[in-house]
Write a structure and sequence with these properties.
Length: 137
Amino acid sequence: MTTTAPHANALKIMVIDDSSTIRRSAEIFLTQAGYQVVLAEDGFDALAKINDHHPALVFCDILMPRLDGYQTCALIKKSAKFHATPVLMLSSKDGLFDRARGAMVGSAAYLTKPFTKDSLLAAVREHTGGGAVATQE
C-alpha cells in the first residue's frame, strides 16, 4: 500500500514493520508532514518494493517474521543501488547490544518504539539533509 503525499516532489519514506499499528502511525505522521510513504509488512515485502519506489530513507523494525530487521538492513546496504540509503532501525528494546548490532549491519540510527511524531520527523530531517516538503512558506 502506498500513500501519495500532497507534494509530487515529496521525499519517499519506507516503513517496514510487522505491526499494522506502527505502520499506520508512521504513515499518518509522515503524510501529515508532506512525505510520500511506502509501507512494507516485513523484509521480503520491503525488498520487493524498494526497487520500484526508491525511498530516500527506510525505517526498519528489528523483530519481524521471516527476515528480521538486521538481515533486511544488511541486504539493503549490500545493494549497489541502495547502499547510500539511510536505514533507521525501529525497536521496542533500547539496549546497547541492539544499537551496536544495528550499526554493524549499516544502520544510520536507532529509534525506540513507541516513537512520537516529533522524534520520527526529527530522525527524517536529520538523515535526509532536512529536505522536508513541510508546508512552511
